[in-house]
Structure formats: C-alpha cells, structure tokens
Amino acid sequence: MPARLHRPHRDDVRIAVGGLLGGLLLWGLGLYSRTSHEPITVVDTRWAVLGPLAVTAACELLRRTRPRTALLAGTVAITADLLTLGNLATVVMFTDLVYAAVLYGTPASARRIPWITGLLTVIGTVVPYVVWRMPQALLVGAGVGLVALVPAATGWVVRNHRDTADAERLRAEQTALLAEIDRRQAVTAERARVARELHDMVANHLSAIAIHSTAALTLGDPQTSQDALAVIRENSVEGLAEMRRLIGILRDGVAEPSATPTLDGLSALVDGARANGLDVLLDTEHGQVPAPVELAAYRIVQESLTNALKHGCPGRVTVRLARVDGVLDVRVSSPHGRRDEPRAPGSGAGLVGMRERAVLLGGTFEAGPEDALWTVHATLPLTEGDRP
C-alpha cells in the first residue's frame, strides 16, 4: 500500500512563498551574500543563486510533514548556495528547516541534531583557525553556529516546553478522571450505605406490620386482633420516624439527632421480636466493643431476627455473641424447614446488606442451612488493623 501523502500546512505554504519571494527580490536587486572575488565562490553567475533558493523554498513545504527529508535536501541546497554568490533568503530558510526538524521530527532526531550542529560548530571554529592562523577564521565557526546550532537549540527548548505542557495537560486530565471515579465510587458507597440503613431500620417494622395485619385479618378473636393492631401501630410509628430521619439525610445531609444502636440494646431488640411471636434466646458476652462493630453486629442480629420472623418455622431462635481471638463472633440460628410461602414478602437484600457490613469491617459472613437450622454467622474484627 503506497504511503499516504500529507498536504503541506497552510503556514508552511506561507513561509515557502514568503521566502521565495524575498529571495527573488534580493536577487532582482543584486544583493548577494558574497562577492565573486571570495575564494569560496565557484559559480559567480547570478542565475546559479536561484537553484538553491528554489530547492530550499520547496523544502519549507515539508517542514512539518517530512522534517527529516526537508533538512537533508535543505543541507544539500545550502551547500550548493555556498558555491554561488549566495542569497540571504536561502540561509534564513535553512535555519528554519533546522529548527523545524528538531521541533517536529522524531525524538531521536530531536536529540541528535543539536549534537551534530554543535560538533559542526566546533569543527568550523577549530579547523579554519588551525589552517589559516588568523583570528578572522573564528568567524567561520560563529557563522556555522548561528546558522545551525542556534536554530537547533531553539527548537530543542521549544520542543521541551511543548512536551512539558502536553504532559501537564495529560496529568490534569488523568487527575480529573480519577476525581470523577472517586466521586462515583463515593456516591455508590453512600447509596449502598443508605440502602442498608433503610432496609435494616424500616423493613423490620414493615415486616412486623405485614405479619400482624395478616393475623388481624384472618383470626376471629377480638383480643388477638386488638393486640395485633397495637403492634401494627407501634411499628408503623417507629418506621415512620426512621423514614423521616433518612429523608432528612438524603435531602439536606442533616437530620435530627438519633442514638446509634449499640449491643446494650439487644435486649430491647429481642423483647420486640418476642412480642412479634418469636421464641428468642439471647446469649452474649461481648464486653467493650468499638462503635462500628457494635452497629454492624446489632444490624446483623436485627436482620436475622426479621428473617426468622418472615421465613422461619416455629421453634427457638438462638442469638449468641462472644469475643474469640480478637473478633466478635455473631451467630443467629433459627428453625429451618419448608414453608409454602413466607409470612411477609422479601427481596433478598437483607443477606446482601449483612455481608457488606461484615466485609467493610474486614470480617467474614456466612448464611445457610445447617442441620435443621438456618444459621447466620459473622466474624467482626475488634481492631482497626484487621480492616482492609
């Protein structure tokens, strides 16, 4: 497949046309860089100046798209120009080709060209002086440095600044991307936290309401219906209060002060479960526990009792908490068997929330049938160092 030809940049066209017209103007006025009496001048006809001028102007069209080719052809042209009367426009355009080769060329070319031009400058300074033994010979090296080394060094400086700017822009884009990723992760984590709180605090009350309302509708005993309605009212009031608090957090980020559940409140939690019809045995020896671990353990026990109320079979529910080897061991077991349908609908989010609470603290979580029981088992590290 043939190589794709790139059209010259419009600025390169302007430079080429401007350089060519300037050179033609100098040629028409008879203004040359040297005289026919200088030893270096080999071809002293005025028409010979136009060849290097035209080649150098054509090379300017390639200064961005083919900088290396343009510099090589321009070097041949400037060498030929040295053998003629010379044209200042040719020299100026050659300096631009050196500058463009460093600025737009490959990284390897950008590194090599300044070294090569520097070496030529040194040679152009030392050799003429050694040969002619005249101070004026040093002007040869100065001319080489002005035509080759200075443009190359300028291109190197500009390229470094450009590369630095590109790197800073890329770093800023990466920083903005990472910030956006962090923001999305923070939003996702906050949504998951609110979802856990909403499920653990409100779903428990709604499940009790659903179960007792079913009992009130199906049983004909007025006293039983009265007791069920009392439980329904109590759970609806508590659930409404929790819902208002969560709405306040979501809307304004603030809410009325609310006491964070602790393990000291497990007795009240168990009493509530007994009032809802569960036979619960509480066995706990936890001692002093960090606040995050207390909250996670409380919510896991709360959700386990709710699941036992909705899905469990008649029988004793056992809740045990104990400190074992630097962790708080939480185990809730309830009778497990086949039921035609749960006493209240569930979404399965409770197990997900319990697992998330344990994992966030660096602990473990398991839930499943064990013999004739459904067992929820969580281990929560009691030290910060155990967290991921």
What does this molecule look like?
This protein has 388 residues and is an alpha+beta fold. The protein folds into two domains: 10-174, no CATH class; 261-388, Histidine kinase-like ATPase, C-terminal domain (Heat Shock Protein 90, 2-Layer Sandwich), CATH 3.30.565.10. Helices cover 63% and strands 11% of the residues. It has ten helices and five strands. The protein has helices at residues 10-29, 50-60, 67-82, 88-104, 107-132, 138-218, 222-252, 266-275, 291-311, 349-360, and strands spanning 279-285, 316-324, 327-335, 364-370, 373-381. Strands 1-2-3-5-4 form a five-stranded mixed beta sheet, with helices on one face. Helix 4 (88-104) packs across helix 5 (107-132). The longest helix is centred in the middle third of the chain and has 81 residues, at 138-218. The model has no long low-confidence stretch (mean pLDDT 81).
List the helices and strands and how they pair.
Blueprint: H1 10-29, H2 50-60, H3 67-82, H4 88-104, H5 107-132, H6 138-218, H7 222-252, H8 266-275, E1 279-285, H9 291-311, E2 316-324, E3 327-335, H10 349-360, E4 364-370, E5 373-381
